[in-house]
Amino acid sequence: MDKLKNKVAVITGGNSGIGFGIAEAFKNEGATGAITGRNQTTLNRSVQALGNGFVGIQGDVTSQDDLENIFQKTSETFGKIDVLVVNAGGVVDGMPMGPISDVTEEGYDRYMDLNLKSAYFTVQKSLPYLNDGASVILIGSSAAHRAAPGMAIYSAAKAAIISLAKGLSLDLLARNIRVNTLSPGSIDTPVFGKLVPEARLEQVKQAWIDIIPIGKQGLPSDIGKAAVFLASTDSAFIVGTEILADGGMTNIS
Ligand code: NDP
């Protein structure tokens, strides 16, 4: 119950799906902190659902100014930051992933900006505010290991996240800041609604379930529990590595 007691966390993209599941799990373990997102309506709703101890800070993670503001405001509100979850990412608005023949240079750049560049600068902008001894969790994806149709750019960006966690862990060793990647497999979140039309949603989810050895999609709470482990001192000896939470899809399917 108290694995994160007195810890202050920032969870980017905490107003939806996996990010909200992580925020709930952190709250259940005694943490307080900030969730972020661009959509003020879902941000308000999520903060209300979390109850006391969490604030919502609006911001676009591809904007350096917004990132600066997120950490400055969290620090002003809570006085410190112990845990950073770099979760915002996934599908670029109005630009579903697709095969190479359909991808424009702008589309390529926007996917890389959202899923790789923003992760790097989220960590960089947090550093002046992050406590020594902090835990940084980068949300990767099983897509880094297992190809799926039309997802090459996203997969490449998420594969680079794993390297980022290694390199940043080394860079931040002197401050005892651990950086790890937590890579979800197929998790039931609103992202599927951004990828496929409503009429095909159940069919697409079933296609994922068919390749997940334990026979079901994960829930945001499954990722939340793994994030609690990486955020807490239980994982103090785990540095610069990746934990896959994918129902066995990467390694045994
Ligand atoms: P959702 O679409 O439910 O959530 C995405 C979150 O990211 C939202 O909170 C959204 O908030 C935020 N976000 C998106 N773009 C931006 C932006 N430019 N600036 C700030 N925030 C942004 O997806 P999931 O919960 O499924 O995905 C969360 C993470 O998990 C992503 O990194 C994704 O790649 C990863 N993942 C998901 C898997 C899955 O099966 N669901 C599998 C593997 C990895 P807002 O729109 O308000 O800005």
TrEMBL record:
Pfam families: adh_short_C2 (PF13561). CDD domains: SDR_c (cd05233). SUPFAM superfamilies: NAD(P)-binding Rossmann-fold domains (SSF51735). Belongs to the short-chain dehydrogenases/reductases (SDR) family. This is Oxidoreductase. It comes from Dyadobacter endophyticus. The lineage of its organism: Bacteria, Pseudomonadati, Bacteroidota, Cytophagia, Cytophagales.
